[in-house]
Write a structure and sequence with these properties.
Layout lengths: L1 H26 L3 E14 L3 E12 L4 E16 L3 E14 L4 E18 L2 E14 L11 E12 L6 E13 L6 E14 L4 E12 L7 E12 L1
Protein backbone atom coordinates (compact mmCIF):
# COMPACT_ATOMS: atom_id res chain seq x y z
CA UNK A 1 0.00 0.00 0.00
CA UNK A 2 2.82 2.40 0.84
CA UNK A 3 4.39 1.80 -2.57
CA UNK A 4 1.08 2.65 -4.25
CA UNK A 5 0.76 5.82 -2.18
CA UNK A 6 4.31 6.81 -3.02
CA UNK A 7 3.58 6.20 -6.68
CA UNK A 8 0.54 8.48 -6.53
CA UNK A 9 2.54 11.10 -4.66
CA UNK A 10 5.11 11.18 -7.47
CA UNK A 11 2.33 11.29 -10.05
CA UNK A 12 0.69 14.19 -8.26
CA UNK A 13 4.00 16.05 -8.05
CA UNK A 14 4.56 15.62 -11.79
CA UNK A 15 1.05 16.89 -12.54
CA UNK A 16 1.58 19.93 -10.31
CA UNK A 17 4.86 20.71 -12.08
CA UNK A 18 3.17 20.48 -15.47
CA UNK A 19 0.34 22.74 -14.34
CA UNK A 20 2.82 25.23 -12.93
CA UNK A 21 4.77 25.22 -16.18
CA UNK A 22 1.56 25.70 -18.16
CA UNK A 23 0.59 28.68 -16.01
CA UNK A 24 3.97 30.26 -16.65
CA UNK A 25 3.55 29.95 -20.40
CA UNK A 26 0.01 31.27 -20.14
CA UNK A 27 1.33 34.42 -18.46
CA UNK A 28 4.12 34.91 -20.97
CA UNK A 29 3.49 32.96 -24.14
CA UNK A 30 6.62 32.74 -26.26
CA UNK A 31 6.61 34.02 -29.81
CA UNK A 32 7.32 31.57 -32.61
CA UNK A 33 9.48 32.23 -35.64
CA UNK A 34 11.81 30.73 -38.21
CA UNK A 35 15.48 31.22 -39.06
CA UNK A 36 16.92 30.53 -42.50
CA UNK A 37 20.59 30.97 -43.31
CA UNK A 38 23.28 30.33 -45.90
CA UNK A 39 27.03 30.60 -45.37
CA UNK A 40 30.11 30.40 -47.59
CA UNK A 41 33.67 30.06 -46.29
CA UNK A 42 37.12 29.85 -47.86
CA UNK A 43 40.18 28.34 -46.19
CA UNK A 44 43.72 29.55 -46.82
CA UNK A 45 46.05 26.81 -45.70
CA UNK A 46 45.23 25.16 -42.39
CA UNK A 47 44.98 28.23 -40.15
CA UNK A 48 43.22 31.09 -41.98
CA UNK A 49 39.58 31.24 -43.02
CA UNK A 50 37.17 33.92 -44.25
CA UNK A 51 33.42 33.69 -44.58
CA UNK A 52 30.25 35.50 -45.58
CA UNK A 53 26.69 34.60 -44.68
CA UNK A 54 23.08 35.74 -44.89
CA UNK A 55 20.30 35.04 -42.37
CA UNK A 56 16.57 35.74 -42.46
CA UNK A 57 14.27 35.61 -39.41
CA UNK A 58 10.52 35.76 -38.94
CA UNK A 59 8.44 36.57 -35.84
CA UNK A 60 4.82 36.92 -34.61
CA UNK A 61 4.13 33.24 -35.28
CA UNK A 62 5.80 33.44 -38.71
CA UNK A 63 3.44 36.21 -39.84
CA UNK A 64 6.02 39.03 -40.01
CA UNK A 65 9.67 39.64 -40.86
CA UNK A 66 11.97 40.05 -37.87
CA UNK A 67 15.35 40.85 -39.41
CA UNK A 68 17.89 40.37 -42.18
CA UNK A 69 21.54 39.82 -41.23
CA UNK A 70 24.64 39.86 -43.45
CA UNK A 71 27.86 38.66 -41.79
CA UNK A 72 31.47 38.90 -42.93
CA UNK A 73 34.12 37.25 -40.76
CA UNK A 74 37.72 36.06 -40.61
CA UNK A 75 39.44 33.62 -38.29
CA UNK A 76 42.92 32.39 -37.42
CA UNK A 77 43.81 29.15 -35.63
CA UNK A 78 47.18 29.45 -33.85
CA UNK A 79 46.63 26.00 -32.31
CA UNK A 80 44.61 23.80 -34.66
CA UNK A 81 41.43 22.31 -33.16
CA UNK A 82 42.23 23.79 -29.76
CA UNK A 83 42.16 27.55 -30.30
CA UNK A 84 40.54 29.74 -32.95
CA UNK A 85 40.49 33.54 -32.91
CA UNK A 86 38.03 35.46 -35.02
CA UNK A 87 36.51 38.85 -35.79
CA UNK A 88 33.68 40.06 -37.97
CA UNK A 89 31.06 42.59 -38.98
CA UNK A 90 27.28 42.13 -39.14
CA UNK A 91 24.87 44.42 -41.00
CA UNK A 92 21.38 44.12 -39.49
CA UNK A 93 18.03 45.37 -40.78
CA UNK A 94 15.69 44.97 -37.81
CA UNK A 95 11.93 45.49 -38.24
CA UNK A 96 10.25 47.82 -35.72
CA UNK A 97 6.62 46.80 -35.20
CA UNK A 98 5.32 50.03 -33.64
CA UNK A 99 7.01 52.54 -35.96
CA UNK A 100 6.83 50.17 -38.96
CA UNK A 101 10.28 50.68 -40.42
CA UNK A 102 13.61 48.83 -40.63
CA UNK A 103 16.14 49.95 -38.03
CA UNK A 104 19.65 49.58 -39.43
CA UNK A 105 22.35 48.32 -37.08
CA UNK A 106 26.09 47.76 -37.38
CA UNK A 107 27.66 45.06 -35.22
CA UNK A 108 31.34 44.34 -34.69
CA UNK A 109 32.60 41.33 -32.78
CA UNK A 110 35.72 39.52 -31.65
CA UNK A 111 35.77 36.00 -30.33
CA UNK A 112 37.85 33.04 -29.20
CA UNK A 113 36.75 29.42 -29.36
CA UNK A 114 38.10 26.03 -28.41
CA UNK A 115 36.94 22.44 -28.66
CA UNK A 116 37.89 19.06 -27.28
CA UNK A 117 37.12 15.60 -28.69
CA UNK A 118 36.28 12.72 -26.38
CA UNK A 119 35.55 9.53 -28.31
CA UNK A 120 32.52 10.48 -30.47
CA UNK A 121 31.67 13.56 -28.39
CA UNK A 122 32.94 17.07 -29.12
CA UNK A 123 32.80 19.77 -26.45
CA UNK A 124 33.10 23.36 -27.65
CA UNK A 125 33.30 26.71 -25.90
CA UNK A 126 33.01 30.13 -27.57
CA UNK A 127 33.46 33.52 -25.93
CA UNK A 128 32.40 36.57 -27.96
CA UNK A 129 32.34 40.30 -27.30
CA UNK A 130 30.11 42.35 -29.60
CA UNK A 131 29.37 46.03 -30.08
CA UNK A 132 26.16 47.02 -31.90
CA UNK A 133 25.53 50.58 -33.10
CA UNK A 134 21.88 51.54 -33.59
CA UNK A 135 20.74 54.04 -36.21
CA UNK A 136 19.33 57.12 -34.45
CA UNK A 137 18.01 58.91 -37.52
CA UNK A 138 14.40 58.07 -36.55
CA UNK A 139 14.61 58.06 -32.74
CA UNK A 140 17.05 58.34 -29.87
CA UNK A 141 18.18 55.40 -27.74
CA UNK A 142 19.22 55.57 -24.09
CA UNK A 143 21.67 52.71 -24.65
CA UNK A 144 23.78 53.02 -27.79
CA UNK A 145 26.00 51.23 -28.67
CA UNK A 146 24.70 48.03 -27.10
CA UNK A 147 27.58 45.86 -25.96
CA UNK A 148 27.35 42.21 -24.96
CA UNK A 149 29.72 39.53 -23.73
CA UNK A 150 28.34 36.17 -24.88
CA UNK A 151 29.53 32.73 -23.78
CA UNK A 152 28.33 29.54 -25.45
CA UNK A 153 28.87 25.88 -24.56
CA UNK A 154 28.16 23.24 -27.23
CA UNK A 155 28.14 19.43 -27.10
CA UNK A 156 27.80 17.28 -30.23
CA UNK A 157 27.92 13.56 -30.96
CA UNK A 158 29.04 11.81 -34.16
CA UNK A 159 26.66 9.00 -35.05
CA UNK A 160 28.55 5.86 -36.19
CA UNK A 161 28.50 5.09 -39.93
CA UNK A 162 26.39 8.18 -40.69
CA UNK A 163 27.60 11.74 -41.26
CA UNK A 164 25.05 12.95 -38.72
CA UNK A 165 25.81 14.89 -35.53
CA UNK A 166 23.08 15.77 -33.01
CA UNK A 167 24.00 18.70 -30.77
CA UNK A 168 22.82 20.78 -27.82
CA UNK A 169 24.09 24.16 -26.66
CA UNK A 170 23.50 26.87 -24.09
CA UNK A 171 24.47 30.54 -24.24
CA UNK A 172 24.26 33.47 -21.82
CA UNK A 173 24.16 37.18 -22.75
CA UNK A 174 25.89 39.59 -20.37
CA UNK A 175 25.21 43.22 -21.23
CA UNK A 176 27.92 45.80 -20.60
CA UNK A 177 28.13 49.62 -20.74
CA UNK A 178 24.41 49.80 -19.78
CA UNK A 179 23.43 53.01 -18.03
CA UNK A 180 21.51 51.09 -15.33
CA UNK A 181 24.26 48.56 -14.68
CA UNK A 182 25.66 45.40 -16.22
CA UNK A 183 23.75 42.14 -15.82
CA UNK A 184 22.94 38.85 -17.56
CA UNK A 185 19.67 39.71 -19.30
CA UNK A 186 19.08 36.73 -21.63
CA UNK A 187 19.95 33.12 -22.30
CA UNK A 188 19.56 30.78 -25.27
CA UNK A 189 19.07 27.00 -25.47
CA UNK A 190 19.44 25.14 -28.72
CA UNK A 191 19.33 21.61 -30.07
CA UNK A 192 19.46 20.13 -33.51
CA UNK A 193 21.02 17.90 -36.13
CA UNK A 194 23.98 18.57 -38.41
CA UNK A 195 24.48 16.51 -41.57
CA UNK A 196 27.66 16.56 -43.67
CA UNK A 197 26.94 15.63 -47.28
CA UNK A 198 30.70 15.77 -47.92
CA UNK A 199 33.68 17.88 -46.86
CA UNK A 200 32.20 20.99 -48.49
CA UNK A 201 28.43 20.85 -47.97
CA UNK A 202 26.68 20.88 -44.58
CA UNK A 203 23.03 21.17 -43.60
CA UNK A 204 21.88 22.02 -40.09
CA UNK A 205 18.39 21.78 -38.59
CA UNK A 206 17.87 23.36 -35.19
CA UNK A 207 15.28 24.35 -32.58
CA UNK A 208 16.05 27.40 -30.41
CA UNK A 209 14.58 28.90 -27.26
CA UNK A 210 15.44 32.50 -26.25
CA UNK A 211 14.44 33.97 -22.90
CA UNK A 212 14.99 37.47 -21.50
CA UNK A 213 15.61 37.78 -17.76
CA UNK A 214 16.36 40.50 -15.19
CA UNK A 215 14.55 43.15 -17.24
CA UNK A 216 11.12 44.75 -17.28
CA UNK A 217 8.54 42.97 -19.47
CA UNK A 218 10.82 40.07 -20.54
CA UNK A 219 9.99 38.25 -23.77
CA UNK A 220 10.66 34.71 -24.96
CA UNK A 221 10.89 33.15 -28.40
CA UNK A 222 10.84 29.67 -29.90
CA UNK A 223 12.22 29.24 -33.39
CA UNK A 224 13.13 26.50 -35.81
CA UNK A 225 15.87 27.01 -38.35
CA UNK A 226 17.56 25.55 -41.37
CA UNK A 227 21.13 26.51 -42.34
CA UNK A 228 23.28 25.53 -45.29
CA UNK A 229 27.06 25.92 -45.35
CA UNK A 230 29.53 25.55 -48.21
CA UNK A 231 33.29 25.48 -47.66
CA UNK A 232 35.92 25.58 -50.39
Amino acid sequence: MSRINDKYKWLGLIVLCLLFQSSLFAQNEPDFGTNLGIDFSKKFGKKFEIGIGEEFRTMNNVSAVDRFMTTASASYSPIRRYLKLGAGYVFIANWQDVEEYYSLRHRYFGQASTKYDLDRFTFGLRSRYQITYLDESNKRYKWNPRNYWRNKLNVSYKVPKIALSPFVSGEIFYRTNYYKGNVIDAYRLEGGLKYDFDKRNTLELMCRYDEEINIKNPASRISVGLFYSYSF
